[in-house]
Write a structure and sequence with these properties.
Elements: H1 19-26, E1 30-34, H2 35-49, E2 54-59, H3 66-75, E3 78-81, H4 84-92, E4 100-102, H5 109-117, E5 122-125, H6 128-140, E6 145-152, E7 174-175, H7 176-188, E8 192-198, H8 209-227, E9 234-236, H9 253-264, E10 270-273, H10 277-280, E11 284-294, E12 301-304, H11 313-317, E13 323-325, E14 334-340, E15 349-357, E16 363-366, E17 387-392, E18 395-400
Parallel strand pairs: 1-17, 2-3, 2-10, 3-4, 4-5, 5-6, 6-7, 6-8, 8-9, 9-10, 12-14
Antiparallel strand pairs: 1-11, 11-12, 11-16, 13-16, 14-15, 17-18
The structure holds pyridoxal-5'-phosphate (PLP) and lysine.
Pyridoxal-5'-phosphate binds at residues 59, 62, 80, 103, 200, 203, 238-241, 274-278.
Length: 418
C-alpha cells in the first residue's frame, strides 16, 4: 500500500489541492484526507479477494469521519463496528447495516437491540456471557441473531503489546481449546444462528506468518465443527494488516489474500476482512505549524501547534510517524529536534530526534495520520479538536469544522447555597 501519499510539491498523491493554502484557510492543526487514496486502498482489498465470495468490513474505529465512511459506503463497503455510536455513523454515512459486523467485548443490551433492529450481518461474540445475552435479547424481539465466535488462537502477532489481541493474556475472544465446546453451546441456544468463525490477533502486523498460523488453526476448528453438524458459512479474519510508517514492508493485500485463498481449498466460505489502518492511515496527514524553536543543552525542541490531544499514538505507543516540512524548497539550517506540542505533559511529543530544516511559522506534515489520529483526539488542556478536510482532485471539503469550546460555566457558583 502506498506509504508516501504525499508528494514533494506540497500536495497529496493523486490530488491537486495545495496543502499550504488549506492550512492558511482553515488553521492548524488540521487533518487532511485523500479520497483517491481511500478508494485505492479499499479496492486493493476488494480486488485481492477477487472471485472468492467476500465482504470488506472497514474498521470504523480507525477513522469514523462521516465523509470517510461515505466514500467507502459508495464503493459498497461493509463495516466493522464496536458500538451503537459507530453503527449510527455508518447509517448516517449511507452504509448498509446488512454488511456490518459488530465486534467488541462489552456490547450493552441496548446496543445489541439496536444492531438487531438494523439487521446487521453478524455479531462477533467474545464470551459465553455475551452469547447468552444476545440470545436473550433476540428472543425478546422474536428474532434469531446471526453470530460468529471470536476465537483467540494464542498467537504472538509480533506487534506492540497494547495493540496485540490474540494472546491468552488478552481480554479478547474465547480460547481456541474451548471453541468447539462453546460453539456447541451456541448452536443449542434457540435465538442464535451460528454462521461464522472470527478472529483478530492484533494491529500493525508486518508479517504474514501470524495471520496464516491463526487461519490454519481456525480451519481445523471449522472442519471439526462440520463433524459436529455446525456448518460455518463465513470466516472473518479480522483486520490488522500493517502499513508503512517508516521502513516497514508489510505484505500487500494481494499476497495476503492469495495465501488465504490457497488455504480455503474447496471449503465454501465467505471471507470477511476488517481492515482499518491499511485503508485509512496513509490516506491522511496532520498539518501543524512550528510555534517556536527552543534550543537547549540536552535537546532542541520544535514546539508545534499539534499535541498529544490531537495525535496520541507517539505518546501512547511510542509510535513513529514521519514529520516533514510541507514546503521542502525553503532554505533553513538543519538541526535535530524533539517535535513537541503545547500540552503540559512530558509525554506530549509527536516525534523525537528528528533532523529538520525548519524555522518558526513553517508548516509540517505528520504522515500516515489518517488512522487512529482524529478518532483518538481529546480536549485535554481544553484544546479544541482540529478540523478535518477531505480533498478530491482540485476540490477540498470541510468534513468537520474545528471545534469551538464554549464556556458552560460563566462564573456563577454551581454549589447550592454557596
Ligand atoms: C476486532 C477488530 N477488527 C478490526 C480492527 C482493525 O484493525 P486494523 O486497523 O489494524 O486493521 C481492530 C483493531 O485492531 C479490531 O479490534
Ligand atoms: N489505536 C491503535 C490501534 C488499535 C487497534 C484497535 N484494536 C494504534 O493507533 O495503533
Amino acid at each position: 500500500m502506498d506509504y508516501f501519499n504525499y508528494q514533494d510539491d506540497g500536495r497529496l498523491y493523486g490530488e491537486a489541492c495545495d496543502l499550504t493554502r488549506l492550512a492558511e484557510q482553515h488553521g492548524t492543526p488540521l487533518y487532511i484526507y485523500s479520497r483517491a487514496t481511500l478508494e485505492r486502498h479499499w479496492k486493493a482489498f476488494d480486488q485481492a479477494a477477487g472471485e472468492v465470495d467476500h465482504l470488506i468490513c472497514y474498521a470504523v474505529k480507525a477513522n469514523s469521519n462521516l465523509a470517510v465512511l461515505n466514500v467507502l459506503a459508495r464503493l459498497g463497503s461493509g463495516f466493522d463496528i464496536v458500538s451503537k455510536g459507530e453503527l449510527s455513523r455508518v447509517i448516517a454515512a449511507g452504509g448498509d447495516p446488512r454488511k456490518v459486523v459488530f465486534s467488541g467485548v462489552g456490547k450493552r443490551v441496548d446496543e445489541i437491540r439496536f444492531a438487531l433492529e438494523q439487521q446487521i450481518f453478524c455479531f462477533n461474540v467474545e464470551s459465553v456471557a455475551e452469547l447468552e445475552r444476545i440470545n436473550r435479547v433476540a428472543g425478546e424481539m422474536g428474532l434469531k441473531a446471526p453470530v460468529s465466535i471470536r476465537v483467540n488462537p494464542d498467537i504472538d502477532a509480533g506487534t506492540h503489546p497494547y495493540i496485540s489481541t490474540g494472546l491468552k493474556e488478552n481480554k479478547f475472544g474465547i480460547p481456541i481449546e474451548q471453541a468447539r465446546d462453546i460453539y456447541r453451546q451456541a448452536a443449542a441456544l434457540p435465538h442464535l444462528e451460528v454462521n461464522g468463525v472470527d478472529c483478530h490477533i492484533g494491529s500493525q502486523l508486518t508479517e504474514l506468518a501470524p495471520f496464516l498460523e491463526a487461519v490454519d488453526k481456525l480451519l481445523v476448528l471449522i472442519d471439526g465443527l462440520a463433524e459436529d453438524g455446525i456448518h460455518i458459512h463465513h470466516l472473518d479474519v479480522g483486520g490488522g494488516l500493517g502499513v508503512r510508517y517508516d521502513q516497514e514492508a508489510p505484505p500487500e493485500p494481494s499476497r495476503y489474500a492469495e495465501q488465504l485463498k490457497a488455504r480455503l481449498q474447496d471449503r465454501n466460505l465467505t471471507l470477511v476482512f476488517e481492515p482499518g489502518r491499511a485503508i485509512a492511515a496513509n490516506a491522511g496527514v496532520l498539518l501543524t505549524r512550528v510555534e517556536h524553536l527552543k534550543p537547549g543543552e540536552a535537546r532542541n525542541f520544535a514546539i508545534v501547534d499539534a499535541a498529544m490531544n490531537d495525535l496520541i499514538r507517539p505518546a501512547l505507543y511510542s509510535a513513529w510517524q514521519a514529520i516533514i516540512p510541507v514546503d521542502s524548497t525553503l532554505q533553513r539550517d538543519a538541526a535535530v529536534y524533539d517535535v513537541v506540542g503545547p500540552v503540559c505533559e512530558t509525554g506530549d511529543f509527536i516525534g523525537k530526534d528528528r533532523t529538520l530544516s525548519i524555522t518558526e511559522g513553517d508548516l509540517l506534515a505528520v504522515r500516515s495520520a489518517g488512522a487512529y489520529g482524529f478518532v483518538m483526539a481529546s480536549n485535554y488542556n481544553s484544546r479544541p479538536r482540529a478540523a478535518e478536510i477531505m480533498v478530491d482532485g482540485d476540490q477540498a471539503f470541510v468534513v468537520r469544522e474545528r471545534e469551538q469550546l464554549t464556556e458552560l460555566w460563566r462564573g456563577e457558583s454551581l454549589l447550592p447555597g454557596a
